[in-house]
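Q: What would this chain look like folded?
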Amino acid sequence: MRREKVLVDPQQRDGKAKRVIADTDPAGFFPAAAGLGHKILRLLAKEPNYPSSIARELRLYHQAVYYHMKKLEEAGLVKRVSQRTVRGGKAQLYALASDGYAIEFDVKGEEFGPSATLSRSGRLGRFMREFITEDGQLDGWIVVGSPEAHGPNRTQGRDGHYAIQLGFALGQFVRLPRTFPVKLDVDLKAEKLQASNLLVVGGPRTNVITAELNQYMPVRFSEESFFGAIVDASGRKHLSEFDSVLTKIRNPWDPSKVCVIVAGLSGAATKAAVIGLTNMAEQVLAGYSEEGGDFAVVLHGLDMDGDGKVDSVEMLWPTAKSYNVTPRG
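A: My prediction, written as structure tokens:
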């Protein structure tokens, strides 16, 4: 049975691991064993590429490269990440589907000890890549609403403690920050730090940074009734107190940076968005593409265990799909 595995080199102490496709049957990997298939994979290991460019680099006929690329895609070893129109046709950009592949035998294995990094979400890491430097430092700020009355409506932020969950999630990818990484929204403005990578927690009612970013979000909060609804790209309004937005956009103060906004119509809804990002990233971020533009989903908080508290989410937009996954802890 084919599964994704984490490959760790016990001789390396840098904490890095590779995600590989492992299977007990080698037949599915035969396209990679062919000479040309292996060459294509080695080129894609450097960066995503187009079959036409690969053909030119290998000095081969395009048809031969397209044939092998199709076989590699059918084997699950490469994936299409985007496409563009060229002279009336569509050019597909391909990338590796994983860091490698392996044949696994049915043996007991070796006790290796627990590692926090082994359970981390690769999709979450890719989604937050701008916040993670090459040497494992955090590049950005977590922004929460001030607990004091502030903003034009003199509201108080009461969802800042959800940043703790986000801190645990980011801690899978970065070292302990040298500088305290959490800023109140009012302090971020006062210190003029908006032109940074920002992870913003809380809706526009309680976080003035969310309110200022709202106009740039592909899915935004309606300003009617004091941000009382979420309007998705189809124009549909989401009005439940458990509805929230998870979005990633270019930072309007500095387009080389990004803003990730985790915000709801209430504190419970913001909690739902945090759960979606941290505990259910593989499902919630399934539509995210590193090659694409802005990303957004509308989530609805669920109480799966009946204790009166949000512990799971379902996606309301772009597709209504309930995952019914209760996060650990």
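Confidence is low (pLDDT under 50) at residues 320-329.
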